[in-house]
Each structure stands twice: as C-alpha cells, then as structure tokens.
Amino acid sequence: MKILIIEDEKALQESIVRYLEHQGFVCEAVNDFLSGKEKVINYIYDCIVVDVGLPFGNGLDIVKELKYMESQAGIIIISAKNTLDDKLNGLDLGADDYLAKPFYLSELTARINAIIRRRNFGGNKAIVFNEIRLEAEAQRVTVNNKPVNFTDKEYRLLEYFIANQRRLLTKAAIAEHIWGDEYLHASNYDFIYTHIKNLRKKLIDAGSNDYIKTAHGSGYRFTDL
Amino acid sequence: MIPLLSVAGFYLFGEFSKEINYRSDKELVSDEIEWIQYLENEAENGTSLILKAPDVSITPTNETVSGEPSITDVNEFNAKENHTVFYRQLSQVISVSGISYRLVIRQSQEQKTALVADVTRIMLFVFAGLFAATLIFNWVISKRLWKPFRRSLQKIRNAELQKMESLHFENTHTKEFNELNTSLNFMAGKIYNDYVNMKEFTENAAHEMQTPVAIAQSKLELLLQDTNLKDEQVQSIMDTATALSRLSKLNEGLLLLAKIENNQYTSTNEINLTQVTKKYLQLFNEFIKDKQLTVTTNFEKDFIIKLHPILADSLVTNLLGNAIKYNFTAGNIEIDIFENTCRISNTSMLEAIPKDKLFKRMFASKDNRETSNGLGLAIVKKIADVNNFRIDYYAKDGMHTFQIVK
Question: For residues A182 and A215, what is the distance between their CA atoms, to the nearest angstrom?
Fold first, then answer.
C-alpha cells in the first residue's frame, strides 16, 4: 500500500510516516504544493494525505487536480482550520475524509485503512488478523471461520484495533474514535473498559487467542507478539 | 432676559413719567398764571378771595412771598374710595395787591398709575411673547439645525461592531457637522478594520495553535510505542498527552465562542430542540448507564427555535453533558420540555454555582478542573444571547436546574 503525505510541518510529517510505515504502509512525503502536485501527476498512490495550508498553494487544489485526472487514490484532507466550510469544501471537491488537527496517528491509520478497503473494488475487502476475519461490508466477523456476533461498537473497536495492531492505543484515542466528541462529557474512561471486556470475552469464547493486552495506566495493545 | 426687560420697563416708565410730569407741570404753571390774573382782576374790583376746591385752594397767608413755585408729588388717602390718590401739586405764596396768598393747584396723577400698570402689562406681554418665541425658535433649531446631528447620534447609538462596515455618516449643510461626520466615518472605518484584524487574528491564532499541538501529540503517541519505557515514564507521557488534549479542546472552545460572537452561525431555519435532546439522550446513553443515572423525561410539546444546528448541538451537549458529568452515581436527571420552556435538572454533590460566576469563562468548579475547561456554560450563555432566548439557573435541595426560555 503506497501512501503520499503532503504536509509542510516537517515534524508532523515525520511522525505520520514513521507510524504508517510501522503499520506496513509504504510512504512518500513532500512538504510543499509544487512537489505534491508533481508527485500526484507522475505516480500512483493508494491514498493521499494532504494538508490544506501548504507553501505555494492550497491543498484543495491538489484534490481538484486528482479528481481532474480521475485518480483512483483515496484522499484525506488534514487541516488546522476545523471549520465547517473547509470541511464541506474538501468533501465536495471529492476528498474521502477530513481530519482536523490535532488528530491521533491511530485515527489517521484507521481512516486510511477504511478508505483503501472501500476503494479496493476488485480485490478482497476482508480484514484478516490470524484466525480473525472481518468482512467490512457486512460487518461480519468470523473466528476460525465460525461467525461471532458483535455489537456495532465492539465491531468498530475490533476494526480499530486491527488497523493499529501492535500499537499502544490510549483510552482517549479509543474513546474519540468510537464515541467522537461526546466522550468529553463522560467523567472518566470507565465505559471503555466494559466494551473491551466484552470484545475480549467474545473473541476468546469463539476460540481466538487473547490478543488484547492491557497496558497498565495507559491503554490497550492488540498484539500477537 | 428678565433683568433686561425690567430695566427696559423701568426706563420706559421713567421716560413716560418724566414726560407726563413735564406736561402737567406746564399745565400747572399756566393754570397758576390764569389764577393769578384772575386774582389780580378780582383785587382791582376790591375783593379778596378764599377758595377751597379739590383742585385749587387759595388762602391768604402771612408767609413771605416765594419767588418760584414749588411743584411736588403728593398722595392723599381717599377714604371714600378707599385708595390712595396721587397728585402733582404746585404751591406758591404770591402777593396780589399787597395781600399774600398761598396758591395750591393740584392735578390728579391717576393716569400715571394707569401708566405703570400699562407698562408692566406690556412688558409682561412682551416678555411672555419673547419667551414663547425663544422656545419655539429653540425647538425649530433643534428640529432643523440639529437634525443631522441627531441622525448621527442615532447611528452611533445603534452601531454594532459587526455591522460597522455599513455605518456611514452623510454630508450635511453644516460645516461643523460635516467635520464631525467625517471624523466619525474615519473612526467607524478604523474600528471596523481593527475589529476585522482582531477577529482574523483570534481565528488564525487559534488555528495556528492546533498545528504545534498536533506535532506534540503525534510525537507523544510515537514515544508511547516504545516498549522499554518504565511505568513512570509512561505516566508522564500520558499526563502530558492529557494536558495537551485539554489545551486543544480549550482552544476549540474559545474559537467556537469567537465564531458565535462574530455571528458566523446565523440560521433562518427552525430547529426542534426536543428532537436534539432525544438524539443526545441516545448518544449519551452509555455514560448515563455507566453512572447508573435515572432519567425522567417529560416531552410535553416540541420546543421549536430558530438556531443553527451546530449551536443547537453545542447547547444540548453542554447542558446534558454537565447534567451527567456533575451528577453522582445513581443520581437523577429530569428533563421537561414545554412549548416555550426546556428544563434540564440534575442532582449533584456540588454547591450551587454563584450567580456572578455562573456564565463566566474559565470558571470551572474546583473539583472538576481536570475534566472541564470552564467554557461550556459561557458558550451556552453566548448562544442564548446571540439567538435572543433566555437561560436561567437555579439550585434547590441539591437539584441544579438550567432552563431555556423562549
């Protein structure tokens, strides 16, 4: 999977590249409008992550260019300007998703995964992690080819875990992914625990290994290591 | 005005009085001459005369003859008519054929009293007339002459920061007002520019702040992946991440406040707050269950209000969110919605919020500094103010109530 990151903040760009490479993506990164445009014209990517505010141009123009070329690449806009107009503009131009800064790298990874899976028309849309298999369209999960019933939240949690496999996920990142901004109104993250406990129990009951590891005080890790 | 008129009155009276005195004196003197002639004629006939009439008296006297007649003002009380009568009186001792007579001739000064009354009346009349004229004149001036001034004044009174751009003070026929209006135009332009700059600065600053936060957050996330970290190090990273996320949410809150203030969320569409409340009850269901809260709802009628959907969401999430967050385990939430009132009450261990701090920015309750940025109620209040509805708060017997009133 080839990803292009167009982001002028060097430090952020590096973080994104490091995290994505760790998750098995092949990344290329540029830090201005012109080299970004050059890249999208000359090469083919599965997904393009583009910042709106760039030197020498606006990231939205790259989105326009990609649509003009009828590119099949998924597009995620990242922007420091979390305004409704900005967001609607980007999505109207044909971007697949919009992420406001600051965002969790794990969130970006989950979104890239979702987009690539949706775009992978001919190919296999299932997500496989050892004995666990997620059929995204039907939201069906099988463990060792036997179907397991999950609630909507449990499914999304599992999907998120697998997209960010082997990474430590903080409770805040998990809460924001599953519950959005609403989680801010909870007094604590206790409610996450219930869902993770249920997910874990269902997986083990279905004969899966115990992949969910609790990192004391910080969060959870989904790992087979 | 009044002293001037009095002086004029006195002067006028004095002049008239002098004139009248002069004339009556002349008359008196000519009368005297006639009387003397008459006396002399009578004396030639050998008769001496004593005459006592109201106006003339001729009495023989032993006094020495006076050269000049003395003319004086006299007043005499008339008992019959019960008022004092003024006279001009000529008195002279004359000698006719060796006999000395005292000749007294008087002339009534009634007309002079009448004159005083007349002068006073005229003066009063003139004064009243002038006074009325002045009032009318003033009124006309303030109506006509000050009209452009009042128009400008009205414009200044109605001026709003956001609409300063369209504020224009027109040219008038008065040079001074033109100067004033030119200055006002200049000032309004400058205020608007400053305001726009300030607004842009606030927005840009808030936006720009998110980028460094994003960098720091991404670095912390990467750092956390290091499996060799000690527990304390992980804890430090987590605390930093939490603080960072608070900073970012605070920033978002301030930005939202600024946008509401700048009227960036105006809506002509009506929204059903009852529906929004139901939606968020669903979304918050998990947190409500987690805290074992009992929610009692009474959706009597739909609460329809003109509000931007984003603000409606913000309003309900803040109020409902607070009702959950500041509640205790197994507490209660009561929601009553009527046609014109939407009421959300919750039980809480916290004391009633002091009135003066209720909707203040950054006033987070001491017990909740970590989970609150203290902007929620300020945002609620701002939404209410901008969209012309009222928000009330009261606390009674451990039950805190927020009420939206149309």
Answer: 24
- Same domain? B277 vs B392: yes
Name the CA dihedral angle for B163, B165, B166, B168, rounded to a multiple of 10 degrees: 120
Give the chain A residue whose CA is nearest to the CA of B326: A187
Phi first, then psi: what are they for B387, rounded to 5°?
-100, 15
The answer to whether the bond into A147 is cis (omega within 30° of 0) is no
**Contact criterion met (CB < 8 Å) for A105 and B221:** yes
Rounded to whole angstroms, how far apart are CA atoms A182 and B280?
Answer: 9
Q: Which CATH superfamily is domain A2-119 in?
A: Response regulator (3.40.50.2300)
Counting one residue from chain A and one from chain B, the pairs whose CB atoms sit within 8 A come to 109
CA A152 distance to own-chain centroid = 18
Q: Domain of B311? A: 270-405
Closest-CA distance, A215 to chain B, in angstroms, reads 10
What fold is seen in the domain A126-222? Arc Repressor Mutant, subunit A (1.10.10)
- Helix A84-93 to helix A59-68 angle (10° resolution) is 20
Cα B95 to Cα B61: distance, rounded to the nearest angstrom? 10
Mark which of B226, B248, B264 sits at the end of a domain: B264
Would you tell me the crossing angle of helices A59-68 and A33-42 to the nearest 10 degrees?
20
Nearest by Cα to B71 from B92, B50, B85 = B92
CB–CB contact B245 A172 (8 Å) = yes
**Contacts (Cβ under 8 Å, ≥6 apart) of B12:** B119, B123
Nearest to B369 by CA among B404, B326, B330, B334: B326
Distance from CA of B243 to the nearest CA of A (A): 12
Nearest to B376 by CA among B263, B265, B261, B254: B254
Closest Cα in chain A to B323: A185
Find chain B residues with C-beta within 8 A of A181's C-beta. Answer: 317
Rounded Cα gap, residues B259 and B233, in angstroms: 39
- List the single best residue of B202, B218, B310, B320 to mutate versus A (max A Cβ within 10 A): B218
User: Pick from B264, B285, B306: which residue ends a domain?
Assistant: B264
The residues, any chain, with a CB within 8 Å of residue B164's CB and separated by 6 or more, are B188, B189, B191, B192, B195
Please count the other Cβ atoms lying within 10 Å of the Cβ belonging to residue B125.
10
The per-residue pLDDT string of chain A (225 residues; one tens digit each, 9 = 90 and over) reads 899 999 999 999 999 999 999 999 999 999 999 999 999 999 999 999 999 889 999 999 999 999 999 988 999 999 887 777 778 888 899 999 999 989 999 999 999 999 988 887 666 678 889 899 988 878 889 999 899 999 999 999 999 999 999 999 999 899 999 988 777 777 677 788 889 999 999 999 999 899 999 987 789 999 987
Residues 6+ apart with CB under 8 A from B215: A9, A11, A12, A15
Min Cα separation A122/chain B (Å): 34
Nearest CB partner across the interface for B215, out of A12, A190, A194 = A12
The vertex-A182 CA angle with A135 and B368, nearest 5°, equals: 140
- The structural domains of chain A, with segments of one domain joined by +, span 2-119, 126-222
Tabulate helix, strand, coil % of chain A (nearest 5).
Answer: 45, 25, 30
In a domain, B144, yes or no: no
Judge if B75 and B55 occupy the same domain: yes
**What is the ipTM for the molecules in this complex?**
0.91
The pTM score is 0.70
Number of domains into which chain B is organized:
3
Beta carbons of B215 and A16 less than 8 Å apart: no
